[in-house]
Amino acid sequence: MQEDQARSYKDISGAALLVILLICSPLYFYFSNYNEDSRGFAAALSACVVVALAWLLRPLRRNPLYWTTLAALALAHVVLVAFLPSTDRTYFGFAFAPLVIADMYLSARLIIFACGAKAD
Known about the structure:
The chain is mostly helical. It is built from 5 helices and no strands. Helix 4 runs antiparallel to helix 5 (97-115). The chain starts with a helix and ends in a 5-residue tail after the last helix.
């Protein structure tokens, strides 16, 4: 398991990261089409978090709680993006970028805890 985790962390730094960004970037352009740039940026970041966690923690994919927790996190991100009020039109979504690191770390810890795996 430890060797698989080390391998998965190496994979995310290469071409996998580019693929994840390319998969999630259309969300920004979809919302940008409706003049919701900040919401589109938050949606793209949220999608990147969920897809990157699915890729990083793929050694746990045989555990049903992995998929359940990942789906719950995805739903929580959808609700956050859908119902987050955007009151200021000059506000841009880059303010969410520093929160992505904390979100990804806490989400990864939640998935690892739910699956009962040991985190190194």
